[in-house]
Amino acid sequence: MAPPWLKAVPDGVELAVLVQPRASRTRVVGEHDGLLKLQLAAPPVDGEANAALLEFLSKQLGVPRRQVTLTAGDASRRKRVKVVGIDAARAEAVISGQT
């Protein structure tokens, strides 16, 4: 069964994430309140944390940056990110291996 933060969509997956900006380093922390918790080294200023989030997820999941988009939560700590070109099983395996 897929974790609550992972949802399969027709052309990829959607991740429900909780970000903690200004952390000491960028990393996956685990699950928190049904969301995937990520610490980001970038500050939440001028979209830097959002850019760092999308870049980090594209590298972790092995997809080009253009296939990772922020669909909700632009100015919130709770965000939804869509990743095209990856299935839910692979996304879960890669991210769960990071925690």
UniProtKB/TrEMBL annotation:
A Pfam family of this chain: DUF167
Matches recorded under SMART domains: DUF167
Protein family according to the UniProt entry: Belongs to the UPF0235 family.
Protein name: UPF0235 protein JY651_21000
